[in-house]
Design brief:
Blueprint lengths: L2 H46 L7 H11 L4 H12 L3 H9 L1
Helix pairs in contact: 1-2, 2-3
Length: 95
């Protein structure tokens, strides 16, 4: 294969790799931003409603209202990001 053809082939592969990396990074960043916004809404909701008795039904509703896929997604994101469960978070902020 002539050098010019080989260089063009390599260039095309590199371009594809760069495009794939940029797409994955943008998607990951968008997902992270979306989850961070949902976490902020959920934590604000729990902080502003001391009367809420955190149970499964309430967490399902909070998850749905704030943009999480389900209660388990909310729970995992709280645990990973804040180091506490949603119920523990509410107890701590309520003192």
């Amino acid at each position: 294969m002539p050098a010019a053809s080989r260089a063009a082939s390599q260039s095309g592969k590199l371009r594809t790799l760069i495009q794939r990396f940029a797409t994955e990074r943008r998607e990951r960043s968008t997902r992270t931003q979306r989850d961070d916004r949902a976490l902020r809404r959920a934590s604000d909701y729990l902080r502003d409603r001391p009367e809420l008795n955190i149970g499964l039904v309430e967490l399902v509703a909070v998850a749905a209202m704030t943009g999480f896929a389900d209660q388990s997604h909310l729970h995992r994101h709280f645990q990973r990001s804040l180091g506490v469960t949603p119920g523990e978070y509410q107890r701590r902020v309520m003192g």
